[in-house]
Amino acid sequence: MDQIKKQESTEETHKIIHTYPLLRHSDMPESMRAETIELIVTACEKYSANNESAARIIKEGLDKRYGATWHCVVGETFGMDVSYEMKHLLYMFLGGNLAVAVWKCC
Amino acid sequence: MITSATGGMAWQERQLSSEEDELSEEDSRREPTVEIRLNTVSPEVANLVHYDFTSRKYLPCEDLTLDLLTLPSKIMLKEDLLAIQEERALVQNTTAAHAGHAEGGDDEKLSVDDLEGCEDVISKEELRKLDSQPNPFNFSERVSQTLRNIVTDEMVQTDPPPSTTFCVNVGPSDIYDAYRKDYAKKQALARLLEEEREKAKDKSSSKKKKEPQPPAPSGSEVALLAPVAPLQESLFPNLSPAQLKRLAFTAKILERMVNQNTYDEIAQDFQFWEDQSDDFRGREGTLLPLWRFSSSALTLVPGYWSGWGGRNATLTEGVRGLLVTDLSFSPVFSDLFAASFSSAETLGTEGAGAVCVYSLKNPSHPERLLLHSCGVTCVQFHPTIASVLVAGLCRGDVVIYDVTSSQAIAEVSSSACSGKHLLAVTQVQWMRFSGKLSLLSASQDGRVTQWHVSGNVLSPTDLLTFPGLSAPQAGPAPNGMSPHDLDGNKKSATPSDGTSSRISGKSSFVAPDRVQLEGTATHIALKPDDDTTLLVGATTGAVFQCSTASTVHSLVRYSAHTAPLTALAWNCYNYNVFLTTSMDGTLKIWLQQHPTPLVVMSLGGAVASAAWAPYSSTVVVAVTDEGKIFVYDLFVRRCRPLCVQALPQKKRLLVSSLAMSPYHPVLLVAGERGHLVSFKLSPNLRRPHKEAKGADDQRIREIEVMKIDRIIATNRG
């Protein structure tokens, strides 16, 4: 009995930490989505300690590629309710503890 | 009398009023007249005398001044003006005017308006007197009334882009849950796949056709084949092979990083930048230069110089000698292309050559480098197997490579024992539908040969034999050719054969089965949907259509050009249309089985190469050997190109080849000195048809076919 309990406890503590980019929601066209995810991953890896800089890089990159005006949220905990131009939204998780949302709206 | 007018002139002004005191003061106030007189006051005049006849003696000239010019004017002395104003101020003071006008005598800014404003304090008479005063300012007014534009407000309300809302709340727990769920889903999927695979395994015993096994490289190429490893070993003598392998991998990543940063601007241009000025340019477009691919890597490889026969050549000499002979984009990978290089100026057997497989992501160094001890004349990627490519050599070899890994490049070569070409191979082409690996090659020795790959051996079957340069008969004589076709170097072979003499005489359409081959085959092109129909271009400028299937060749001869052919390509949408270009400076577009071309375009110089754009059925890109690139869209207009652009180059160099990427609007142009440049076609050059907007692939294809069909209908005549 004791043994079984012990096993259970070790199973519980053994957690797998996922860090791959996980797309949660997007209505972008395929090529745009791939580009955006790549940009987000690059920016967040470059500025892993500074979400502000990462958000700035993402926003500026998207503005340059797909025209103004993009908005970006990078953070662990946030809530939002935005209106956005259709086919210009992407919401994803990254690195296991980071959520990134980008959308276009004037 | 003035005898000399050389003396100095001086302005002398005199106010009459001050001189003539007897005039009434009021008069002088009303009309202060000034005269400006021009007279002479030269000191020399004092010495002058004149002879008086009445007194009979010389007398000195008395009145030395002479009025030359008298101008009545309204200029007055400043002191006088001050006096007038002083008096006026006095008048105002006495009538007890408002305080603002009591500034004193030095007020020079009295204007008529001010005076009118205080009408009640100055009597009418006084005012009239003031009116007649001269304007203290030199005042002139010129006014004209012009038409005034009427300003109106006009507004249009446009629809805003459609928008929706998105609402989300996220915390660490949400992220964790999402990852857990996704991971579970992935695992389930993987399990499912595994099960399916096992099921499939059980059902069918492993019966899979495999690609040719990497054979052992043979002959003299061995030393040249794997150049990268020896280079690294010489650089890092302390490292073991395993370490070297890891180092190569790391170095590759580093190289990619450096390139990504170095060529970031170009990459951004390539992917996202569209030339906005095209909107104002009508139909014309431009070519934006992108990467310039470097071939200097070739010269750094040990073994390269051995190809020069031990000549003491310098680095620049080596690069200068390089000629890019052929380009081929990978049909599978969007960024990959192969270029063949030849160091010899002519297609001789001397010199060195190479095939470089470049990626658009790395313009500074090729991904794969396949060196040869003789020039490489042509190269082509396999249409479906991504890593397999074939190259033709100056020596007459046809070599197949598998370039999956940079460490071990597999190679299958034609051997001298079993009917390889005796002179330089001019073009190679894979066959698509034969099931096995097989390809066609054309050579300067006059043969057009089909090669079957079985294991490590290439077995040839001769399809056609052209009279060629020297016409040495190597392989077995091809079937279906009448004897006089084979021996005939001369075009007007036998007088009895009326047809053949007619061909050489004038350009007429000749019935099949009666056509005599002439010149040597330089270009071959298989029909895209049918492996049995083959076009062969010859040095004489003629194009022959023949069949690879039947032993009795049914030939159609198109009298295409008067000079050697330089390009031959089927249309990507309508498989009955092909283009030919030639050194005679024309580009012609043909419909199959029609003796006259649909369209003839003169480019004003020997055309080096041409290609159909893969995205449109009517866009043709051609380049002259001087480096002028022409882009035509037959559907938009036929007489003038949409774009003519010269290659940006410092020195004059000959251009030899051109290729269009099947995935991107990117054009490659290559020539002498290893010159290899890519261009992006501006939006005007790839503008889709009106109806193609938002259409799916099937519909776009239909529209493209419709476009080329319309060209055919209007030009068939």
Automatic annotation (TrEMBL), chain A:
Entry's SUPFAM superfamilies? Answer: DLC
Q: Which residues form the signal peptide?
A: none
Extract the CDD domains matched here. Answer: DLC-like_DNAL4 (cd21453)
User: What would be one Gene Ontology cellular-component term for the protein?
Assistant: microtubule
Report the superkingdom from the record: Eukaryota
Give the SMART domains listed for this entry: Dynein_light
Family to which this protein belongs: Belongs to the dynein light chain family.
Q: What is this protein called?
A: Dynein light chain
Q: Which lineage do the record's taxonomy fields give for this organism?
A: Eukaryota, Metazoa, Ecdysozoa, Arthropoda, Crustacea
Automatic annotation (TrEMBL), chain B:
Which locations, inside or outside the cell, does it occupy? Cytoplasm, Cytoskeleton, Cilium axoneme
> Sorted alphabetically, which Pfam families does this protein's record hold?
WD40
Write down the SMART domains for this protein, in alphabetical order. Answer: WD40
Which region is the signal sequence? Answer: none
> What is the protein's major site of localization?
cytoplasm
- Enumerate the GO terms in the molecular function aspect: dynein heavy chain binding; dynein light chain binding
Q: Which domain of life is it from?
A: Eukaryota
Keywords, A to Z? Cell projection, Cytoplasm, Cytoskeleton, Dynein, Microtubule, Motor protein, Repeat, WD repeat
Matches recorded under SUPFAM superfamilies: WD40 repeat-like (SSF50978)
* Keyword Cytoplasm belongs to the record: yes
User: What's in the GO CC field?
Assistant: microtubule; outer dynein arm
Annotated stretches, region: Disordered: 1-32, 195-221, 469-506
Residue ranges with Basic and acidic residues bias: 195-205
Q: Where is the composition biased (Polar residues)?
A: 491-506
Q: For this entry, list what GO says about its biological process.
A: cilium movement; outer dynein arm assembly
Sequence ranges of the WD repeats: 558-590
The similarity comment for this entry is:
Belongs to the dynein intermediate chain family.
UniProt name for this protein: Dynein intermediate chain 2, ciliary-like
Question: Native species of this protein?
Answer: Hyalella azteca
> Which lineage do the record's taxonomy fields give for this organism?
Eukaryota, Metazoa, Ecdysozoa, Arthropoda, Crustacea
